[in-house]
């Protein structure tokens, strides 16, 4: 293993990141070290080392990983370094048919989507299947289907047997349909609330996943509930400051899928579903990567590009 380096923030509001040496990583029990090849917000690369109790991985395997530094507050668990450490339960092998740049769009989006869809106190959907999906009569509305989380949520919900309605711009209509969305509504339309309410009326409406979680999406979802005289669960990627009597979005915590009592979600998604679904093509690595730099020194530029906004793409830096 070569020396480790990382992109550091060494003081409040520091800009840009400073590139410095980092401690050589040592995996703890149930952890792996990854030789990083591509970074979005998380990591893709080769297994470098494994800790005690790890039985799914060995050195040299190609993987993607959700790095859980937000949970542990340990810099070793952050992705912006050459050799991050993360939990085995947040890692999955990727097939040779996927490049690291393609695959690295997935980790945080998959975990965030999975927490909202499958936690029993959120939407509580049946777990997804990579083969022989069992259809249900339930319908899920995903607000923001062309976002990273939205793209994963569409595919997971379809693999759970649900019919998915989603919102997107007209430019991204075919993209979200290619992921499995049954119906697509232009969120910019002045009649989007009425249009969605009309098609949902009389259906088995399971709930809403708000992958945008801004005031306009919260307001639109609340209006839909009022028009339907309905109250169903809402999972949201950000907190809602103004819940209503019917619309009470629940803030999704991505890493909760490896914590009790929800760790069966992480085990199923990362350990069972994703390896098979990526290998057989049932789950697509979407949105497409947008590579904006090479090396740790370009991570700040990548964040700047992301902050300006991209549509149906994921900002990537190679290492």
- Percent in helix: 25-40%
Please tell me the total number of domains: 2
Distance between the termini: 15 Å
CATH homolog superfamily of the largest domain: NAD(P)-binding Rossmann-like Domain
CATH topology of the largest domain: Rossmann fold
What general form does the structure show?
A: globular
Number of strands: 15
pLDDT < 50 runs, ≥5 residues = none
Radius of gyration: 20 Å
Q: Look at the helices and sheets and give the structural class.
A: alpha/beta
Mean pLDDT: 96
Main β-sheet, in a few words? 7 strands, mixed
List the helices and strands in order. EEEEEHEEHHEHEHEHEHEEHEHE
CATH architecture of the largest domain: 3-Layer(aba) Sandwich
The total of helices stands at 9
**Any idea of the CATH class of the largest domain?**
Alpha Beta
Strand content: 15-25%
Family: Belongs to the zinc-containing alcohol dehydrogenase family.
Keywords: NADP, Nucleotide-binding, Oxidoreductase
GO molecular function: nucleotide binding; oxidoreductase activity, acting on NAD(P)H
Protein name: Zinc-binding oxidoreductase CipB
Summarize this structure briefly.
The chain is of the alpha/beta class. It has helices at residues 69-72, 100-103, 107-118, 148-159, 173-178, 192-200, 215-228, 263-280, 299-308, and strands at residues 4-8, 18-22, 31-39, 43-50, 62-65, 85-87, 91-93, 138-143, 163-168, 183-186, 204-210, 234-236, 250-251, 288-294, 313-318. It has two domains: 4-106 and 285-318, Medium-chain alcohol dehydrogenases, catalytic domain (Quinone Oxidoreductase, Chain A, domain 1); 110-256, NAD(P)-binding Rossmann-like Domain (Rossmann fold, 3-Layer(aba) Sandwich).
């Amino acid at each position: 293993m070569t020396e480790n380096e990382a992109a550091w923030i060494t003081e409040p509001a520091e800009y840009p990141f400073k590139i410095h040496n980092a401690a050589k990583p040592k995996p703890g029990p149930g952890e792996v070290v990854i030789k990083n090849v591509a970074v979005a917000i998380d990591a893709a690369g080769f297994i470098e080392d494994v800790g005690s109790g790890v039985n799914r991985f060995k050195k040299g395997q190609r993987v993607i990983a959700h790095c859980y530094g937000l949970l542990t507050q340990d810099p070793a668990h952050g992705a912006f370094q050459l050799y991050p450490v993360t939990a085995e339960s947040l890692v999955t092998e990727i097939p040779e048919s996927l490049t690291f740049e393609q695959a690295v769009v997935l980790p945080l989006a998959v975990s965030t989507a999975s927490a909202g869809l499958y936690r029993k106190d959120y939407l509580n959907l049946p777990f997804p299947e990579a083969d022989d999906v069992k259809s249900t009569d339930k319908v899920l509305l995903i607000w923001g289907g062309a976002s990273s989380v939205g793209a994963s949520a569409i595919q997971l919900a379809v693999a759970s047997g649900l019919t998915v309605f989603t919102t997107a711009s007209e430019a991204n209509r075919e993209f979200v349909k290619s992921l499995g969305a049954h119906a697509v509504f232009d969120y910019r339309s002045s009649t989007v609330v009425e249009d969605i309410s009309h098609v949902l009326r009389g259906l088995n409406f399971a709930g809403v996943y708000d992958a945008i979680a801004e005031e306009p999406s919260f307001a639109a979802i609340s209006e839909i509930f009022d028009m339907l005289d309905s109250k169903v669960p809402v999972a949201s990627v950000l907190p809602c400051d103004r819940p209503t009597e019917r619309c009470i979005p629940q803030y999704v915590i991505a890493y909760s899928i490896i914590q009790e009592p929800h760790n069966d979600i992480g085990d199923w998604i990362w350990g069972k579903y994703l390896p098979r679904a990526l290998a057989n093509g049932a789950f697509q690595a979407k949105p497409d990567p947008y590579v904006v730099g090479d090396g740790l020194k370009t991570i700040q530029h990548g964040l700047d590009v992301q902050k300006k906004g991209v549509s149906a793409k994921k900002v990537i830096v190679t290492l």
